[in-house]
Every structure is written in C-alpha cells, then in structure tokens.
Write a structure and sequence with these properties.
Length: about 350
C-alpha cells in the first residue's frame, strides 16, 4: 500500500456497482464490502431484508468490493462512508495519510483468515516443513507480507522458502497443478476455491496464522475518523444493525444464503453455506468472542497487529492503537453477548 492509494481525489468516480439501492427511508449510508458476495456478507443483506437497518434509522446502499485494500482506499477517499476490510490494510494507509485515517469500529473477524495452505503429498505436514519448498502468493499481498512474523511464531526457517509470485486469481490453480508446493492466503477463500476446481476436501491442509502463534485481528467495519466525528449516531446504528444481522444469519444460515441468491444469480448457496460455517468457527465465534461478546477489543492484540504490519511494510511512523481502534460505537455488552 503506497501513498498512491490516496489518489483519493477520484472519490466518487471509484464507486462500485450496487448490490441493492438504498431505500428512501432513514439516514443514507454508503457501505462497501471487501469482495463479491460471499456467505458472511449475508449478515448485512439480512439486516437490509429484515428491516433491521430501517428500524435503526438507516438507509444502507451495499456495494460489492474488489479486495480489502481497494475497499480501504475507497473509504479513505470519501467514496464510501463505511467499509468491510481486513484491518491490517489500514496500518500503512493511516501512517501515510493521517488526515484520512481509518478506524475499526467493529471487529467482525476476531481472528485473521490468513493461512499457510498446501495439499497432501507435497511433503508438508507442519508449518516447519515448508522450509526449502516453493510457496506462492501475489507480491505485496497481506498474508505474504506478514508471513515472516508467522514464521517466527511457528518456528519456520523463512529464509529457506522459495517464493513464487502470481496474480491472485492464479494462486489456487497453481497450487492444484503443482507449480508451487504451498500458498499463503485467506483460508476461507483458498480452501473453497480449491474445492470448486475439484480438489478433494480431505486433501487440503492448512495452518491459520491466528491458530499457530500469530493471533491477529481480521476484517472489520471501518470508517474515516473525521466522518465518525460528524456521524457518531449513524456509526452506532450501523454497528448495532450489523450485530443483529449476524445474529439473524447465525440462526438461519440457509435463509441468509437464499437472501444473497436473490441478488446474485450465480451465487452457490451450498458452497457458501459451508464457507460461512468455516468463517464462523475460525474467525467469528472464537473463544474470545464467546467470552466477551461480539466486537470486543483487546488493545494488546491490536497493538501487536500494528507492530507486525509496520515491520512488514517498513512503516517507521506506525499509527497509535487509540487512533485506529475504538469500541465507542459498540452497543452495550448485554446486547453483544453470544
């Protein structure tokens, strides 16, 4: 993420195709997802369908995304009020553009989805076995950039890895074809992409960073700091609605998948229900969330995330924890208990 990110002057021109236009009632909110519609996005689709946004005084326009980094830039540009993005993307962006800094107002993913992923038969049965192997990931992609921190935590000899760069859409195919021995990426994305191209599920091996020594936060709802100062009630209403939408999804996963299918004809309900189940179990309903409630912030973990990303991207002036994370817009703890 370079200072080019904020060529943010083109704000409005960066708008994404709408999934569904906002209704005429309530305060208008422009919300950008991190990617094309996937299972976990049903929490916001259900919040819309069930009138949760409306009941909380909001009229939300939900647009698809084109990657966490892209979404972060678009929120920082002012093209969107709120976005759903991997919070790690904000570390360098905030350091380079303090006047357009992003703030996490609701950590949806209590754990990052970044993982080391391989297939059986590649001679990799633990993270340490990846030393001397060919590992693939797009150059500059988050899971690759913070791999050294994961390697240190997991006891991997990182200097013995042979990295292969590729476009993101070729990563899973190259792993399946044996052009690389392993890849780094988001577990839920790569796992089900491999399933989608015919790899038997029990042939896939993965070691999520967060479960193997590098316990970082994942994707969050973010907003620009100056927007939050002007719109605190809207931010609080959106977070409250998001949690209620998540509760609705957890209670009725098939219903959530059907809601997305109405908006995206090519949406695979069965596969996405499985993707969401993995997301739920590995990143959303973590032991921390079960104990402390949705969105609970541990500032020590937040500080670790900033430090790891600052080291990975060579940031000499990392943002402070207080400038990048807040629990001010979360509903009371009683409303956030699992």
């Amino acid at each position: 993420m370079q200072r080019r990110h904020l060529m943010i002057a083109a704000g409005a021109a960066l708008a994404m195709p709408a999934i569904r236009p906002a209704s005429a009632q309530g305060k208008p909110v422009r919300f950008a997802l991190d990617w094309a519609l996937q299972g976990n996005h049903a929490m916001w689709v259900l919040a819309d369908d069930k009138g949760i946004f409306r009941d909380n005084g909001l009229s939300v326009k939900i647009d698809r995304g084109f990657g966490s980094g892209d979404t972060a830039v678009k929120v920082a540009s002012g093209a969107y009020d709120l976005g759903f993005t991997d919070i790690s993307t904000a570390v360098k962006l905030n350091a380079d553009n303090p006047d357009k800094r992003l703030v996490s107002i609701y950590q949806v993913f209590d754990r990052t989805a970044a993982a080391l992923i391989t297939l059986k038969g590649r001679g990799i049965n633990s993270p340490k076995d990846v030393a001397g192997k060919k590992v693939g990931a797009p150059e500059g992609e988050g899971s690759r950039m913070i791999f050294p921190a994961f390697a240190k935590a997991a006891g991997v000899e990182a200097d013995k890895i042979k990295w292969t760069s590729m476009a993101a859409n070729l990563r899973d195919t190259m792993l399946a074809q044996g052009q690389v021995d392993a890849v780094t990426g988001f577990l839920f994305t790569t796992h089900f992409n491999l399933v989608g191209i015919g790899i038997p599920e029990d042939n896939i091996l993965a070691w999520p960073y967060a479960e193997n020594g590098l316990d970082l936060y994942g994707s969050a709802v973010v907003a620009r700091a100056d927007w939050l100062e002007k719109n605190p009630q809207i931010a609080s209403a959106f977070v409250k609605s998001s949690i209620l939408g998540l509760r609705a999804l957890l209670a009725d996963i098939p219903g959530g998948m059907a809601a997305i299918k109405k908006r995206e004809a090519l949406f695979d309900e069965a596969l996405e229900a499985r993707r969401f189940a993995m997301t739920r179990d590995r990143s959303i309903l973590t032991p921390n969330v079960k104990q402390n409630g949705f969105g609970y912030l541990d500032m020590t973990r937040a500080e670790t995330l900033i430090r790891v990303n600052a080291e990975a991207y060579g940031v000499s002036n990392p943002p402070s924890v207080a400038s990048m994370f807040t629990s001010d817009f979360l509903p009371p703890v009683a409303e956030r208990q699992v």
